[in-house]
Amino acid sequence: MQLKFEKVIHVADAPREREESLDVIQRELTAFARRARSAAARLHPDLPLVSYTLLAHIDHRHGCRATDLAAHYMLDKSTVSRQVAALEKLGLVERHPDPDDQRIQMLHPTAAGTKALASTQASRRAAYRERLGTWTSDDLEQFAEYLLRYNAAGEDGPPQ
Fold it and tell me: Residue 42 — very low, low, confident or very high, per pLDDT cuts 50/70/90?
């Protein structure tokens, strides 16, 4: 009889435990984001986290439109415009007409942009290696899978 009672308590506690887990996740993701912004400023003072993220996306896509960036990162077009203008001013991004439609401007990293991105990525990779150095390969793989799953679930917009 006691086993049934323990099981009932466990089932009854599940929603509370789930909420506690969600609170921890929210708190830790917020701390992660704060550390990421702080680290971005230290790694390349002229390349804030948002600018770095946009430059990395432009590079990864081998060029894209500013509207693609706004849609992908759910940012206002004016925010993307300011960020792209800053990247252009730093000489990290340049515009080229789309070969398929000359009215459309495609963003591409410059040689300096590619170099800044590579340098920043190397610094970030080293920081992750250090921070996650004691994790097993299985831990890293599982963490990567969870992050992919989490981010894929959020593609329809931010959590409500």
Answer: low
